[in-house]
User: Fold this.
Amino acid sequence: MSENEERVNVGKKLREAREKKGLTLDDLQQATKIQKRYLIAIEDEKFDELPGDFYVRAFVKQYADTVGLDGNTLLKDYDDDLPQTKTAEYSNHLAQAVETRTGNRQPTVDRVDRARRYLPTVIIAVVVVIILGAIWATAIVRNRQDAATKIDSSSVSVSGESSKKSSYSSSSSKSSSKAAKLEFTAANRTTSSVTLSTTSGLTKDTDMTIKASGQAWTSVTVDGTSKLSKTLTANSTSTVSLPKGAQTVVLTLGNASATTVKIGDQTLDLTDSGKYANTRTVTIKFGATTTASSSASSTSTSAASSSVATTMNSTSTTATTNTSTQSSSTR
Assistant:
């Protein structure tokens, strides 16, 4: 077998192995990182197109290993047919490779040593940062808790004060409403008139509401001043404002049984629950005392007695005069 046939057999063996694996030259180039033109030169056994004898054996071995052949065995089988690598060129390439590896390795070693040298400092710095971060976070949490506690305390305080104020206002309102409530006592009641008195005075302007369930003529006088004089129709209402400090209110009613009178929230009993349906005059006195009522009653009684006495005296005088006249005439 000639030298050319052996070389063709080497390239052919590699190409058949590649095709058997289903690989194209592009696939093989990507897998081995060997340029496609060098792969073609290997299959055609044009080893002089490769960069040098050193690369021939290296590329052939890598080609064989990639397509599933044993590269070392292939190199031994075709050792005589492949360029020898133990030449000056091989030595130069080897020296360059060793020098390059040494140069590349030295910076790596220096970087590792430098990293080891600074590693403790980096670790300490990281630990310090973590501790400071923890302290900062704790301070923020405490400040928020204190702020929340202050807000809660303020809310409780304000709520307590509001409750006290509300209670005080409620108590004041109740006291005011109790103070404003009027209780009337009937006195000097006759079939046609009645006097209603209360010890409480009007501490503010108060409405007096007059409502008629049937047609009723009504007039109202407050401390001698006429405030109302009209005929109310059925289911109609009139309101009279009683000024603060008013003392005497006189109502003249045409139909007492069909008339309802309210002062504030207090309803007046005009007819003593219907016993005196013909009540015409209702006198209302504010701030009246029992003594004052008694005095007024005594005064009224005295006045009535004086009037009766005067009338009786006049009658007696008239009778005497008539008697004397008659005697004179007889004579």
Observations:
- The CA atoms of residues 146 and 152 lie 10 Å apart.
- The mean pLDDT is 75.
- The first strand starts at residue 185 and ends at 187.
